[in-house]
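User: Please run a holo structure prediction.
Assistant: Happy to. Please share the sequence and the ligand.
User: Here you go; the ligand is zinc ion.
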Amino acid sequence: MDKQHGLPSAYVPPDLVEIPPEWMAPGFPSQLLRKEAAEALVVMLRAARAEGHELRVRSAYRSYEEQATTFQYWIDQLGEEEARRVSAPPGHSEHQLGTTVDLTSASVGWQLEQPFGQTPEGQWLAAHAHEYGFPLSYPQGAEEITGYTYEPWHFRYIGRDQAASWAQSGLTLIEFLKEPTD
Ligand SMILES: [Zn+2]
């Protein structure tokens, strides 16, 4: 699902579970992910912590209605053309899949902003998130392909095996998922 392909407004993923509160950014409300993605996320965040990188969740599953509110916020802030570069219209957000998470760290004040990519935590994710099944959806310099500006915080779970194939492919995630599979 991307700029062209959408999800029905009524689509709610099955098996949503709450991300354990200890992994939430301080002051932010609890968030949901699909069970397998939530479990893989905790494995990844524990591994990062063991290597000295404290990462936390800012947002995860977003319903169609919540995405409509989010997108309208960005239109009000930036106008529609710019809003489309940083946010998705309802039905087109990877967050509605329940497999996608925005991560941040104290070094950027728990914000979702591009300097996160230069922090040790952001660099750890760039190097290792795919090993836990989480490709980076919107890499730097790929806006013409993805339609979105660089989001070093936004990771979509596709499973470890698929993510390993993705990493080998050298493609953006959108291109990789469009590839025909056997
Ligand atoms: Zn995101």
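The chain has seven helices and five strands.
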